[in-house]
Every structure is written in structure tokens, then in C-alpha cells.
Amino acid sequence: MTEAPRITIWHNPDCGTSRNTLALIRNAGVEPAIIEYLKTPPTREELASAIAAAGLTVREAIRQKDTPYGELGLADPTLSDEQLLDAMLEHRILINRPFVFTPWGVRLSRPSEVVLDILPLPQKGPFAKEDGEAVIGTDGQRAH
Predict the structure, then answer these.
(1) Would you give the DSSP letter of residue 114?
(2) Coil/strand/helix, residue 127
(3) Which distant-in-sequence residues (6+ apart) come within 8 Å of 11 by Cβ?
(4) Does this model's pTM top 0.85?
(5) Which one of 10, 27, 81, 111 is at 20 to 30 Å from 142 when CA atoms are compared?
(6) Which residues participate in catalysis according to the annotation?
């Protein structure tokens, strides 16, 4: 029996995209390590490393919707990456989610099916998002 690959998700259980991503990982037969990053935040180094490994800029990794992004003035293009990281660490809700870490790469899984790019394991059955959108068909392949 082969050992399941080590997969970690920075998860927010209140986020539908995060829940759908977690469900897709589980649909591949893997129980990931779940880090509720609002309760157990990453270090500055972990956050910066995750953003870089996902191929994103710090600005691309900031969540704007339903956060203090606007009131903190974070749209200011003169803010440095260090200043943006400071804000993300002080206001964890600004860390976009979910980040997923697998042996095949790191991704910010927005939309949730982006996780399939770094999860080359067969899906165990059909899968639809919470809103009913089909992601995996009955043949185990992407629906679109």
C-alpha cells in the first residue's frame, strides 16, 4: 500500500471556496493537514514563501472582499510588499484562501478547482461545488 502524499491546506471553514477545495482533496482519497490560518497564522516567512511558491505577488495574495482592505488604504500602489505583508499578518482575514501545498506545487485555489493542477491523483467519484456547479463528472474527469 502506498503512502498518501502530504498535503496541507490553509483553510477557513467559513469560506465556500475553501470548503470546496478541501472536499476536492478528500475526493482524491487524501485527508490533508488542515491549518485554520485565522486561528493559527503563518509566520511572515511562511506567508512570503507560500505567496512566492504559488507564483503570486504579495498584492495578488491579498483578499479585498469582506476585509478592511479599503479602510486600511491597501490599494495604494506605493505600499511595499513588506507593508502589505505587515497588514496581512496584523489582519489575517486579508490573507486570501485557500493556499494548498502538495508535492506537486503550491496554489491559491481560487476557484477551488485550481487545486486539481497540483493534485494529479484520480478523483474517487463525481464532484459538484456547494452551489451545484459540476467539477468532476461521473468518469472522474474535469466536467469543463
Answers:
(1) G
(2) strand
(3) 18, 22, 34, 35, 36, 37, 97, 98
(4) yes
(5) 10
(6) 15
Task: Please report whether residue 97 resides in a domain.
Answer: yes
Per the structure, the count of domains in the chain is 1
Q: Is residue 69 in some structural domain?
A: yes
Taking only the tens place, the pLDDT of each residue in 46-102 is 999 999 999 999 999 999 999 999 999 999 999 999 999 999 999 999 999 999 999
Q: In whole angstroms, give the CA distance from residue 34 to residue 122.
A: 21
In total, the chain counts a number of residues equal to 144
Extended beta strands in the chain, E state: 8-11, 33-36, 99-102, 105-108, 127-128, 134-136
Look up the domain containing 132 and give its range: 8-136
Q: Is the separation of the CB atoms in 42 and 50 below 8 Å?
A: yes
Tell me if 13 is assigned to some domain.
yes
